[in-house]
Structures are given as C-alpha cells and as structure tokens.
C-alpha cells in the first residue's frame, strides 16, 4: 500500500459524546439509546423501521423541547445509521440547549454524523462551532481530534497535525488524540516522534492491531527492523484472535 493509499485514523469515531476511557479493543463510541416503547409481542425489537418511526415522532414534538432527550434521539439515529436525521437532530439540540456544555456536545456529535456521511466541510464547520463555545473542555479535545481527521480527509494535512497537537494539549490523557498525533507525525516523516505518540496512546489503554501496525511502520522508517517485525507479528496475532472470536460468535 502506498502512502497515498494509506487510510488515516478512524474519526468520528472518536468520541461520540465520550471523551475518554477506551476498552481494548477500542470502540470509538458507546451509544446508549433511550428506552423506546416497543411491544416485543407485536414488533420485532430489532426492526429499525419501527425504531426510526418512534424516533421521528419524538423529534417532531417541538413543544417544550427537552434538549437532553433530543440528544438521545440523535444518538439513537446514529445507532440505526440514519446519519442525516442524526445531524439534523444534533443541530436542533445545539440551538435549543440552554446549557453551553450540552450545546457543545451536540455540535461535536453533529460533526461526527457528517463524518459518517463523508461530508467533511459540514463536519469541519460543526467542530469549529463546538470549539467556539469552549476551546479547553473535554468536549473540545474530542472536537479537535475529530477536526484533525476531517481536515485530513479534506486534504488539509498540515492543519490536521495542528489540531491533533491541540487535542493532546487540551487532554494529555486522551489516547485517541495521541494515536492521531502519531499518525500525522508519521505522515510528515517524523517517525521517532510518532513512535513516542503511539507509545503514549498504548500506555493510556488504546492498544489494537491498527496502532501496532502504524508503530511497526514507524520503526521500519527508523531502521529498527527487528523490533518492527516483532510489533507487526503482535498486530497480526491480534487480528487473528479477533477474527477467530468473530467466527466463534457467529456459530
């Protein structure tokens, strides 16, 4: 795979209403949808059409809007891959919310919804709105991390690194921010700094095959071939275990 073909870090990922605390393997965000009144005796509870109909009814109730409940509706839209409706819902939350922190969270989530649709300009705008509210909160760290990814996808690679650096400054214990920083540093040819960033991310609990592969690539560029092979082998073992676990669960 050439450098031009390499995939940047997963983005939006990052942090749908969650700034910190990742499991292994890393899961980008944890969506806990609100309870929906589905009668399992009449409706298959996994029928997303029924779920989306309920969400639509809740979103359209504009009288006395509860911004926190509306945020849950947006997250539930994300869970059933209705990203356009999610983006619209998060924007309504941002407009209605009296609490600036809730409004900021909504803008970050709106950006991630646009990211799922690969609408990078809209995503960038949403993250910038979030940062305009508060550029030093935990949500700001998520906004900067996701903004870095959106910048990368839109071809603004130099700005991507700047925002990745800013995310680490805001929250030095945010592992995804360190991973993104390492990725962008490596793309700029700064392999030694990239290895340090990847190590920081792993120390903070972000350890999966993807980051190990990127670290192996950085070590290769530094001429540390033996260590690179060891790290690459660990990444392959991790991928194989994940595949075996997936097959086991399907049985």
TrEMBL record:
- Xref: Pfam families: TPR_12 (PF13424), TPR_8 (PF13181)
Protein name as it appears in the record:
Tetratricopeptide repeat protein
- Region annotation (Disordered) maps to 1-55, 220-251
What's in the keyword line of the UniProt record? TPR repeat
Composition bias, Basic and acidic residues = 236-251
Q: Where is the composition biased (Acidic residues)?
A: 24-33, 221-235
Q: Per the record's keyword annotation, is NAD included, yes or no?
A: no
Q: Where are the TPR repeats?
A: 67-100, 104-137, 141-174, 175-208
């Amino acid at each position: 795979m050439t450098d031009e073909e390499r995939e940047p870090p997963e983005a939006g990922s990052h942090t749908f209403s969650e700034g910190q605390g990742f499991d292994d393997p890393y899961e980008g965000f944890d969506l806990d949808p609100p309870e929906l009144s589905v009668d399992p005796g009449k409706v298959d509870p996994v029928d997303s059409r029924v779920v989306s109909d309920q969400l639509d009814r809740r979103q359209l109730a504009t009288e006395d809007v509860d911004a926190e409940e509306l945020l849950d509706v947006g997250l539930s839209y994300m869970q059933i891959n209705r990203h356009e409706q999610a983006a619209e819902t998060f924007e309504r939350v941002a407009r209605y919310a009296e609490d600036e922190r809730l409004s900021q969270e909504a803008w970050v989530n709106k950006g991630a919804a646009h990211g799922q649709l690969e609408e990078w300009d809209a995503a960038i705008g949403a993250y910038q709105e979030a940062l305009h509210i508060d550029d030093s909160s935990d949500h700001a760290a998520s906004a900067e991390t996701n903004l870095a990814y959106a910048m990368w996808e839109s071809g603004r690679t130099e700005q991507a690194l700047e925002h990745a650096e800013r995310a680490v400054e805001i929250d030095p214990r945010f592992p995804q921010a360190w991973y993104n920083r390492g990725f962008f540093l490596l793309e700029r040819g700064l392999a030694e700094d990239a290895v340090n960033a990847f190590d920081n991310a792993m120390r903070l609990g972000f350890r999966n095959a993807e980051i190990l592969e990127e670290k192996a690539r950085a070590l290769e560029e530094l001429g540390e071939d033996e260590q690179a092979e060891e790290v690459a082998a660990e990444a392959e073992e991790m991928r194989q275990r994940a595949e075996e676990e997936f097959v086991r669960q399907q049985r």
